[in-house]
Structure formats: structure tokens, C-alpha cells
Amino acid sequence: MNKAQALEKAQAARHAAKLALARHALYATTFGGSDKLTQHAMLEHDVAIEAAKKWDWVAAIHPATRASLIRRQALPTFMFGY
Q1: Which of 42, 46, 63, 66 has the lowest tally of Cβ within 10 angstroms?
Q2: What is the pLDDT of residues 48-68, one digit of tens each?
Q3: Within the chain, how many helices (H) and strands (E) appear?
Q4: What is the Cα–Cα distance from 75 to 35, expressed in whole angstroms?
Q5: Which burial class, exposed, middle or buried, applies to 61 when counting CB atoms under 10 A from its CB (0-12, 13-18, 19+)?
Q6: CA 58 to chain centre
């Protein structure tokens, strides 16, 4: 994975966050904001923002460090916590 690929993933995560935020606004106006759909959409937004931040970090690190994380298969541990 190179810097451009990591930046593409970060951009995709930010796009997913925008969609989740729009869905949250739709559900909040439709259902009043206290139902599970609204809460789930807000959670999706938060997760997508965190993923975008982490992909930005992956894009910003030195290429050798990025390659080392991938080679040691430590990138999923950093990204997802397991």
C-alpha cells in the first residue's frame, strides 16, 4: 500500500461519514432523534471519522514504517484494535 492508496481510503471514509451524517439528519427529523436508527447513524458517522483519521495517519507515516506495519501484519491491529 502506498500513500495514494491510503489517502483514497481516507477520502472514502470521509465520504461515508458525510452519508452517515445525512442519514442521521434524515432520521432525526423523521423520528425525532431518539430512536435506534438515529443513534446507529450517528455511530456510523463517528466510526467513519475515526477510520479517516487513521488512514490519514497511515498516509503520513514514512513509507518504510508503513511497509513494516503491513509486513508484520500490524496494520489491522492499529486500525481496528485487534
Answers
A1: 63
A2: 999 999 999 989 999 998 888
A3: 4, 0
A4: 35
A5: middle
A6: 12
